[in-house]
Amino acid sequence: MSEAAAGSPRPRALPRRxxxxxxxxxxxxxxxxxxxxxxxxxxPPDADVEVVVVDxxxxxxxxxxxxxxxxxxxTAAARSDGGNPAAARNQGARAATGDPLVFLDADCxxxxxxxxxxxxxxxxxxxxxGGSLELPPGLPLSARCDYYCGWYHVHGRRPAxxxxxxxxxNLSVRRAAFxxxxxxxxxxxxxxxxxxxxxxxxxxxDGVAIHFEPRAVAYHYNRPGFGNLLRRNYRWAYxxxxxxxxTGAARLAWLYRYPRLLVAASVPLAVPQxxxxxxxxxxxxxxxxxxxxPVVLAARLAYxxxxxxxxxxxxxxxxxxxxxxxxxxxRWE
Length: 333
Description:
By secondary structure, the chain is α/β, with parallel strands linked by helices. 40% of the residues lie in helices and 16% in strands. The protein has helices at 29-40, 62-69, 85-95, 114-123, 141-150, 175-179, 197-205, 226-238, 240-247, 259-265, 270-283, 287-291, 293-314, and strands at 17-25, 47-55, 72-75, 101-104, 108-110, 128-134, 161-163, 170-173, 210-220. Strands 1, 2, 3, 4, 5, 6, 7, 8 and 9 form a nine-stranded mixed beta sheet that branches. The longest helix is centred in the last third of the chain and has 22 residues, at 293-314.
């Protein structure tokens, strides 16, 4: 008589792995369907994939198009500020059921092999994995300029390895590790520009490295318009000193220990920063990025003005040291 016939217990099938891809989306009806379908098409044979789209106050058919494509839609809490991507990401993480949690922006489109590349690095032991943001074909000149001004550290030509921080547009983290942190910083002005720095700094203080994986490619569709480029750089810079000084999650983090010096030097620093960005692209073999130097300089000047304005606001005497944004731990009291 066989063991099974003799009543021996049969081995239990292990539960299938589930991966959660979280997409905050606001008025993204045109982009969200192709994004959701591209993610679901990369479902591994040994795992399930859920796409959680957080509808962040859309006034178009974003939620409908996401459901039609196969996503689970979560409606973000109504806000008076007209949407908050950091809060939407946190809400999506709470609603998600998988591990890892993969954050992907609605203006991105993952390339073939994107999800497999992220999972390979996780399976090798990495807790946080950041993928590359690549320039898609066919963008107008102003949108390409915007790309070159912003993503010179996270393109697919730079080598894999540890990085100080990584933007949330193409970023994966193990569920338990993210749950140990305060999550994305939801208060403005940080929530629109540096919302990931606080929880990444928490993990780094615990000895967790952030691994950059260039083969996890997502194409980033920067919006056209030189006015948009200047406004975005100003907005990014407005909370740069506040968020980076408090967390230390930045390249050349020691500079942010001297916020008043950075405020005073922000405009003069625009020139060497623009030259550095052009050099990064030239070193990567992207001649067009290097030739964008005049536009990059204009963007860095907008960034400098934003850093000066935001830094002066943060350093006002009436702002107590203990009034740092929730999710941001001050480095000093």
